Amino acid sequence: MQSKAHFVEVVPDSSLRKKEAEATSAFRRFFPKASPLKLYRTSDGRIGFQAQFAVVTGERALLASAYAAVMTVLGEKRGRPVGERKVQATLRLPEPVYKALKAAAEKSHTTLSGLVEDLAHKARLV
């Protein structure tokens, strides 16, 4: 069985510490018994939070609403980071190459596009 663990490097961010109480308040509107949130910023600039709470079957929409409320407090939106422009491209690959790339993408828990982008970075093409 493969591990689905992802490691991130957390960097200090004093501005996030100031918003933890407000973010916790927004989150507790949906999950009143949740512990205080711990906000963090990763080395690549992404923002996230750590929370401890219980979710029961059927509360997926409630969880999505709680997440959106916290991100609103932080002034963040889901999706691609601002300023990161993507261009759609079509590759014509031999079938064995496509299958090998597809298998490698699944093994690394990423998309085919993400794998190609990582390979281009590693080859210093970008």
Summarize the structure.
This protein is mainly alpha-helical and 126 residues long.
Largest sheet descriptor:
3 strands, antiparallel
Give the count of structural domains: 2
DSSP strand (E) fraction?
5-15%
> Number of helical segments?
4
Q: Describe the global form.
A: elongated
> Helix-strand pattern, N to C?
EHEEHHH
Q: What is the strand tally?
A: 3
Strand order of the largest sheet: 1-2-3
Rg (C-alpha, Å): 19 Å
Structure description:
There is one protein chain. The chain has 126 residues and is mostly helical. 43% of the residues lie in helices and 9% in strands. It has helices at residues 14-28, 60-74, 95-107, 112-122; strands at 10-11, 38-42, 47-50. A hairpin with a 4-residue loop joins strand 2 (38-42) and strand 3. The chain is elongated, with a radius of gyration of 19 Å. The model has no long low-confidence stretch (mean pLDDT 86).
List the helices and strands and how they pair.
Elements: E1 10-11, H1 14-28, E2 38-42, E3 47-50, H2 60-74, H3 95-107, H4 112-122
Antiparallel strand pairs: 1-2, 2-3
Salient structural properties:
mainly alpha; three-stranded antiparallel β-sheet; Arc Repressor Mutant; single chain; 126 residues; elongated; 4 helices; 3 strands; 2 domains
